[in-house]
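Possible regression after last week's pipeline update?

I re-ran a chain I had predicted before the update to compare outputs. Posting the input and the new output here so someone can diff against the archived version. Not blocking, just want to make sure nothing changed silently.
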Amino acid sequence: MSTPFLSIRDLRVHFGTEDGVVKAVDGLSFDLEKGRTLGIVGESGSGKSVTNLAVLGLHDPRNTKLDGEILLDGKELITASEREMEQLRGNKMSMIFQDALASLSPYHTIGAQIGETYRKHTGASKRVARARAIEMLRRVGIPQPDMRVDDYPHQFSGGMRQRAMIAMALVCDPELLIADEPTTALDVTVQAQIMDLLKDLQQEFGTAIIFITHDLGVIADIADDVLVMYGGRCVEKGTKQEVLRTPEHPYTLGLLGSMPSLDGPVDVPLSPIPGAPPSLLNPPSGCRFHPRCTFAEKVPGDLCSTEQPALKLTDGRGSACHLTPEQKRELFADYATARTN
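New output (post-update):
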């Protein structure tokens, strides 16, 4: 079996605050191969973005404690120096942030910002870097790139700024691309264009992509594999088809139930998940989802509230839930029937 390009084992990211320790990520493991897209989905505060900031080494070491293992192409990142991480960021791994306008400098042209990234990692001249910036803007679909390269971010539309961010992220041909909800602020037409662009560029470069989102519709479009996070932990993993068609965790089922169905009756009401996400300062004991779980009462005794369920995987597929496979088939089938009848 080949070694995964990115391998994370028992990752824990804890922040020290005046109120106590925030367990933002609390024992997360997954692998990612080159050329595949992993969709990480969950509500705000589930640990999605914190996980990937840890991969990039963009946490504050003064109040952040990292434990576990992050291996990128065999190199351990948690113990890497800041100098080593600077060499990796933008070169071997890169990130597209959610808000392109906030991420781009308003005082420098688009071309200068893309070119600076290229120069930092390759030592290229300004002339060569400018030519590379024009090439990347053309590749991401910016019209008249030789002219727009000298524009400032405020002269680009939202969709064009996002394309420019993608051009900057890919200018050094990184092998790992992390996209943190890059289409959230865009209309659906531009969103679809950005998704198609990422898929085309992945096919061209063979990049491994982590796509962070709260939108399962986006996951259905772009991901190969899905990791569902809740309260800083992984509650379900599998291929896109497995997770979206046959969910194994009540939280995943709840996420699907809160989305409109395109192939079911139009008058079926949405079923929002009751309650609120847990406090990561003082998370619930046992299964962190049990205070909001519709099915917790089906488990004998107080198991859901007292014992943390293990993430049981078979060939990369599984969930962390105390319900038996037989209970899931019966209860989840009834839920799906109620949604479609």
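Follow-up from reviewer: compared with the archived run. The two ends are 45 Å apart (CA to CA). Marking as no regression found.
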